Amino acid sequence: MKVFTPTVAIPMVVFMAIVFAAPAQSQEDQYLEPATELAEQINESAQQSQDKIDNIAGQIDSKLQQYKTLLKEMEGLEVYNGQLRKQIQNQQDEMQSLNDAIDEVSVIERQITPLMINMIDGLEQFVALDIPFLEQERKDRIVDLQAMMDRADVAPSEKFRRVMEAFQVEMDYGRTIEAYSGLLTVDGQERDVEFLRIGRTALLYQTRDASRQGVYNKQTRQWEELDSSYRTQVTKGLRIAKKQLAPDLLMVPVSITD
């Protein structure tokens, strides 16, 4: 009878284990590969989902910033609209005030027109009674004012300004000295003379050759001839009025009226 020693059995068991282990490993790989691929797909899908989430989050941040910007613009527009409402209200108040003023102007116009006509009539009478200097110029000014009052294309304010301007011109005559040329009948002959007006105090004349001079008498409303002793003073006055001499004292006859 033959006896087997253990040394022979052990190697065979190991060999068989190796032999049977190889198919098991191959079978395990068959199960692991689909799992690995599935895991990779899951990871890829998760990455894509994360990318979508990041993209959506970015869009949300952008929209949020736009929303905040719009809120600020709306706040600014609200302030601007509030200011515009105040301006519109002020304009409406001003329009109402202007309408009220227009109504008042209509009333004033009806009242001021007769006043201006009376002022022009009074100015005409004043010129007719005044010393006769610049007669044609002053009469033409009054005729222009009378014609202006009949014109519809001239505003009442402009009419009033023109009337007041004419009165101002007449007032200025009383405090100025003036020399001007004109024609005057002397001894039945029309002569070219120089007139000297000293305010409304005196109105004198002198012929071009300085041989004759005279003064207007307010009481008689006539021209009176002056003797040669006044020649120097009248000549001096004419030169002062023409700004050819500095202002100086003049000795001229003055008519005294009651």
From TrEMBL:
A Pfam family assignment: DUF3450
Signal peptide from the UniProt entry: 1-21
Top-rank taxon, per record: Bacteria
Regions that span the bilayer: none
Coiled-coil stretches noted in the UniProt entry, renumbered to this chain: 74-108
Protein keywords: Coiled coil, Signal
Name of the protein in its database record: DUF3450 domain-containing protein
